[in-house]
Design a protein that fits this description.
Shape: globular
Radius of gyration: 19 Å
Structural class: alpha+beta
Length: 238
């Protein structure tokens, strides 16, 4: 461990650090999905995508939704647009069908830290290659294009599917902030996860191997799970 002249432990030097770049809504295109900045134009399509969730279970841990109609979703998109976060609409690369949304938030270029959140997938996107690819596209843009050092994921600590998703994607659990928020009139403890820039190259290689066509059969079923490729590339489990 490095120490200063007083014998005190100090952090690792970051040579030449001048900060990361702020995301500007660049289109992120993959083989299965395309991410474009979320606009009012997306409201009808997204309302249809979210409509497959008949009982509203997908919105339980979100601070908004389920939506009664297109107008309600449109108002929410307006609220999104006036905040500091950058929202994307996730669309099918082949059909252009709207499938869900995700955003960058807690964007701190000076510290090189950025979070992915506000993730809402329609049922047609859940548990698909496109679902994973959307997250990979956002990670790659943050690390490779914008130069971030830290990529965060936070969720309600009771949201087991979100916690599992973070761990599957290679995020490391960092702890839980107790009584962090009040959401829809209820307490929320928030679980924190992260990926660091030094972890990204091996994780990026694991994603590439998992997403490869050779890893899927004719019916689109995976042959090997992402965890296999993470282990193969030396990515430490969360």
């Amino acid at each position: 461990m490095e120490t200063n002249a007083l014998g005190q432990p100090i952090g690792t030097e970051v040579p030449g650090w001048e900060g990361a770049a702020a995301p500007e809504g660049t289109e992120l295109a993959g083989a299965h999905v395309v991410l474009r900045p979320l606009t009012q134009h997306d409201a009808p399509d997204l309302f249809e995508a979210y409509g497959a969730d008949k009982d509203g279970a997908d919105a339980t841990y979100l601070p908004y939704g389920p939506y009664e109609n297109v107008a309600a979703l449109s108002r929410q998109i307006t609220d999104f647009s006036v905040g500091p976060d950058l929202f994307y609409c996730i669309r099918d690369a082949r059909t252009d069908q709207a499938l869900g949304q995700a955003s960058y938030l807690r964007i701190n270029p000076e510290a090189g830290s950025i979070e992915v959140g506000n993730i809402q997938y329609g049922r047609a996107l859940q548990r698909t290659r496109g679902a994973t690819e959307a997250m990979v596209l956002m990670m790659a843009h943050a690390f490779d294009d914008l130069g971030y050092r830290r990529y965060e994921w936070k969720c309600n600590a009771l949201n087991a599917p979100s916690c599992r998703a973070a761990e599957r994607l290679g995020f490391t659990y960092e702890g839980t902030h107790r009584q962090a928020l009040v959401v829809k009139g209820r307490n929320r403890d928030t679980a924190w996860y992260s990926i660091l820039d030094c972890e990204w190259p091996a994780l990026k290689a694991a994603f590439a191997s998992w997403l490869d066509d050779n890893n899927f059969d004719a019916e689109g079923r995976q042959k090997r799970p992402l965890s296999h490729f993470r282990e193969e590339k030396g990515v430490i489990s969360a």
